[in-house]
Amino acid sequence: MSERKRVAAVFDGTYGGFLCVVYSSYYDKLDYAFIDEGEVEIRLDAEPFYVAADRGKALRVLTAVRQKISPQAESNLYHAFLADGPRREDGRDDSRLINLLRYIRLGFRVGRAVDDYTREPYVRSTQKLAFAAAREAQRLMGFCRFTLTDQGVYYASVSPVHNVLPILAEHFRDRFMNQLWIIHDVKRGKAAVYDGRDYRVECVPPQANVRTNVRTFVREEERFQHLWKAFFEAVAVEERENAKLQRQFLPARYRTHMTEFLP
Questions:
Q1: Per-residue pLDDT tens for 203-218?
Q2: How many C-beta atoms surround the C-beta of residue 226 within 10 A?
Q3: What's the CA gap between 18 and 51, in Å, rounded?
Q4: What is the 3-state secondary structure (H, E, C) of 48-99?
Q5: pLDDT tens digits along 36-94
Q6: H/E element, 246
Q7: Which run of H or of E encompasses 55?
Q8: Alpha helices, DSSP H only, in 90-164?
Q9: pTM for the full model?
């Protein structure tokens, strides 16, 4: 008897789309060997199965994870999905998404004890990626530097390791709700744009050069920038400078977008 061909799930790359892959694995009774984002990838070792995004199905999975496993598992799932995991030579995701699916399937079997199963590599991987993405998001909540443009829009640029733009947008929507703002993920070519009511994430083509077109500051903003830089230099104690400790708490990759480190 011939060997049964394996199946690769293909979805739109969104978190909701991935939750629909989880739904499909149960209700379509498919044991996915691979999960691919975006366009269908030609594979010799698996047959592609496109999973369409469906808000209702995604919400059902999310509710089931929260109620049948735990809120912590729900948080791990979301943050690990946003994390930038191992990549193959062609740039596609290696095992992160399959590990997330295995993590959730185990959770539906053992409940909130899922995070105690650290002997399972996919549990450890999910926890590690979730922690890394959550930590970077927490850092950038404090490291984001908004500047007021002459268009009346506050602009901040970031280049995070992980895809934490949705977390930052949620955070600043609740805390900066009375202003118009843009958070630009330069590394991924995306921007969260807040219009005073809600935000949307848009793709930003490299040729758009948002940093040049948007960052024309009002004169008052330039004055505040000079004051902030002066304060930053004034509070520094030269005799207690510890460059290694500074890099530990504020990695160099964040400094290119922070006012106090700009020339």
A1: 887 656 555 455 555 5
A2: 11
A3: 9
A4: EEECCCCHHHHHHHHHHHHHHHCHHHHHHHHHHHHCCCCECCCCCECCHHHH
A5: 887 656 666 678 889 999 999 999 999 999 999 999 999 999 999 999 876 554 555 55
A6: helix 243-249
A7: helix 55-64
A8: 96-110, 121-143
A9: 0.83
